[in-house]
UniProtKB/TrEMBL annotation:
Name of the protein in its database record: Aminotransferase
PANTHER family in UniProt: ASPARTATE AMINOTRANSFERASE
Region forming the signal peptide: none
GO molecular function term, any single one: pyridoxal phosphate binding
EC number: 2.6.1.-
Keyword Transmembrane helix carried by entry: no
Keywords of this entry: Aminotransferase, Pyridoxal phosphate, Transferase
Protein's GO biological process: amino acid metabolic process
Location of the Aminotransferase class I/classII large domain: 13-360
Length: 366
């Protein structure tokens, strides 16, 4: 069968980049902001971000503590490279973004996954986290909201993490908050609110998800000064600063964030409802309703051997390959996200495409 493939595997939405960002970028080009910018990033963007954390989280972050990077992956890379020594361990709840293990490995470290239980809606299990901390553990890596889970940690869960950091005075924490504008109950609090831990807490974030600007490659790192200075030095040595005219677009996106997020959220919420309603009619697939973002993590164990002895599929990869071959749906097996037996599926698609995808999924599963 020669079917068009519906891409449910992608890590980006169907939204266009907000026009305010495009216009500001075009204006900057027209004004000839087309030369090298500062390695640390444009002051306007660093100040706009500092202002954002002051307004939304009530925390004063000096603009000098914010490094603008070539995307959030790059912010992660610079931070990990600045912090880790060979042999260091990084503890992270699983499932996690699939790029984490390699990013950690590139910096000489090792990722130690702590599986979260979907039956408990991926609750943060602080006891489990504590049990994995050894003298080699340098960093706790949180993703909030989660990818692929869409889990938003409650304030109480974050407080437990903060208490854990108090117990281990050499432990650092990195909070990846790249989906933070897409929380269905509104934008979520940053881990930066724990001001007393500021000498060990870092945040990475960016414009790819909450602003639909993945091709712009803009992210940022907020880190304790000794780490940040190292990261700036690496950025200077390896790649130089981000294009000024792109950062001019990002400034306008940040200034208008609440309006943009509200619009994205409203549209995504309707899609989440629709997907949830349809998936609930497929008892073979288990899932947790996401609190944020546009992914659903589908547990397909019931469609695999040994749970279903009649199934032709042993591995989730085989199930996903058949889904693509037979009904033209591409999903992402979560094995390399630390959750074998599950797949990640995006619902950030135009309504007609999403409806078509849900029909195909129903046909395949039944
Ligand atoms: N962190 C997480 C959790 C992500 O899901 C992604 C993108 N999939 C990134 C970082 C990287 O984003 P960027 O496009 O800004 O490099």
């Amino acid at each position: 069968m020669n079917l068009d493939i519906i891409p449910l595997h992608l890590g980006l939405s169907h939204f266009h980049t907000p026009s305010v960002a495009i216009e500001a970028m075009q204006e900057a080009v027209a004004q000839h902001q087309t030369f090298y910018g500062p390695n640390e990033g444009l002051p306007e963007l660093r100040y706009a971000l500092a202002q954002r954390y002051l307004e939304d989280d009530g925390v004063p972050i000096p603009a000098e503590q914010i490094l603008i990077t070539h995307g959030t992956k790059h912010a992660l890379h610079l931070y990990l490279h600045s912090l880790l020594q060979p042999g260091d361990e990084v503890v992270a709840p699983a499932p996690y973004w699939f790029a984490f293990p390699e990013l950690v490995r590139q910096s000489g470290g090792k990722l130690v996954p702590v599986p979260a239980n979907p039956e408990e809606e991926y609750r943060l299990n602080v006891e489990e986290l504590r049990s994995r901390i050894t003298p080699a553990t340098k960093l706790l890596l949180l993703t909030n909201p989660g990818n692929p889970t869409g889990k938003v940690y409650s304030w109480a869960e974050l407080q437990q993490v903060a208490a854990l950091l108090e117990e281990f005075p050499n432990l650092h924490l990195l909070s990846d908050e790249i989906y933070d504008g897409l929380g269905y109950k509104g934008p979520l609090p940053s881990f930066l609110r724990f001001e007393s831990l500021r000498d060990r807490v870092a945040v990475v974030n960016g414009f790819s998800k909450s602003f639909a600007m993945s091709g712009w490659r803009i992210g940022y790192l907020i880190a304790p000064f000794p780490i940040l200075e190292k990261a700036v030095e690496l950025q200077q040595k390896w790649i130089s600063g981000v294009s000024p005219f792109l950062q001019a677009g990002a400034v306008e996106a940040i200034r208008q964030r609440h309006r943009i997020w509200q619009q994205f959220r409203t549209e995504l919420e309707a899609k989440r409802e629709r997907v949830t309603t349809v998936l609930q009619k497929m008892p073979k697939l288990q899932f947790t309703v996401p609190d944020a973002g546009y992914y659903v993590t589908l547990q397909v164990d019931r469609c695999l051997r040994p749970q279903d002895p009649a199934s032709p599929f042993q591995l989730v990869e085989e199930w996903a390959a058949a889904l693509k071959d037979q009904v033209g749906l591409e999903v992402l097996p979560a094995t390399n996200m630390g959750m074998p037996g599950a797949v990640r599926m995006s619902f950030a698609l135009p309504d007609d495409v999403l409806e078509n995808a849900l029909l195909r999924l129903q046909a395949f599963v039944s």
